[in-house]
Amino acid sequence: MTELTNAVSKRERDCLVLLKEESRGDFPMRLHEIASTMHIKPPTALNIIRRLKSKGFVETQDGMIKLTDVGDRLSKTILMVHRTFESLFCQSGVPESRACSEASEIDFLINGENAMKVLKRIDNPSSCPHGKPIRM
Amino acid sequence: MTELTNAVSKRERDCLVLLKEESRGDFPMRLHEIASTMHIKPPTALNIIRRLKSKGFVETQDGMIKLTDVGDRLSKTILMVHRTFESLFCQSGVPESRACSEASEIDFLINGENAMKVLKRIDNPSSCPHGKPIRM
DNA sequence: AAGAACGTTAGTACTATACTAACGTATGAC
DNA sequence: GTCATACGTTAGTATAGTACTAACGTTCTT
């Protein structure tokens, strides 16, 4: 987890998380799929994908878009940070859906190692409120 | 504390916090002072001030720049959120200066009421690691 | 052969951020 | 009294990010 956070913008983050969560088991996504899931038009999605590609987080093969190893690691970190803060908010009494949206605003801005320290501080939950595992 | 957070960008946030922390006791700031403290040129600072003015967070009188009541409330909320998360990071073992910079990245993005819930969750410290009070 | 689906290009737009160069006004030094 | 400095301001440029429409080319399927 080598200082990868803060390398992406909000929408790039959304796209990375989508690719990580949606494309389970090396099942890459198409541009139109990404666009419609993110509620944007294909040219806008293409723009985001291009930036992610130029940053080395994504690669395309025959219209299939998938995470690179580096992109996969970054996505994992972001999801770990996300679930850590989502858990914190929930433990604090914030409703689940609010907790999730708050976490989405900040998960790509916080350093992974610091988030892991926070995770310990909040009693090291093994899964987020949605039941998804928290790990690197 | 009525849903004011998320109303500003990062640099607008920096400027609000500067105005709140630097101008103690109705001692407003000049443009050049703001610019040099923020390490930007006066025209850039003017731009930020203009946006803050149009949002109703700042007003100018004879070149003196000061927070409006609404701006003052927003700054207070941001500082409360800042100190809450700074405390969280410190309690978690993150060094003080890192804790501060991480908190600065997110304090203007998080809802004040949710932050207050987090504050309770982390044992309601009355001051941040720097010794400054945490309150609304 | 026609149409749909999809990726892509080109062009526009707006916000945020930041710069330089230049200008006007005011104030203090001499 | 003039000159220089300081300061606010304007105008112009630039880049990144976000998002749109219109249009084009290719491919795949009826």
The CATH class of the largest domain in chain A is Mainly Alpha
Share of residues in strands of chain A? 5-15%
The major sheet of chain A is characterized as: 2 strands, antiparallel
Count of individual helical segments of chain A: 6
- In CATH, the homologous superfamily of the largest domain in chain A goes by the name Winged helix-like DNA-binding domain superfamily/Winged helix DNA-binding domain
- By CATH, the architecture of the largest domain in chain A is named Orthogonal Bundle
Which geometry of chain A do the CA atoms define?
globular
* Overall pLDDT score of chain A: 91
Quickly give the structural class of chain A. Answer: mainly alpha
Radius of gyration of chain A: 15 Å
Q: What ranges of chain A have pLDDT less than 50 throughout 5 or more consecutive residues? A: none
In sequence order, what are the helices and strands of chain A, one letter per element? Answer: HHHEEHHH
In total, the number of domains of chain A comes to 2
What distance separates the N and C termini of chain A? 8 Å
Strand order, main sheet of chain A: write it out.
1-2
> What quaternary form is this?
homodimer
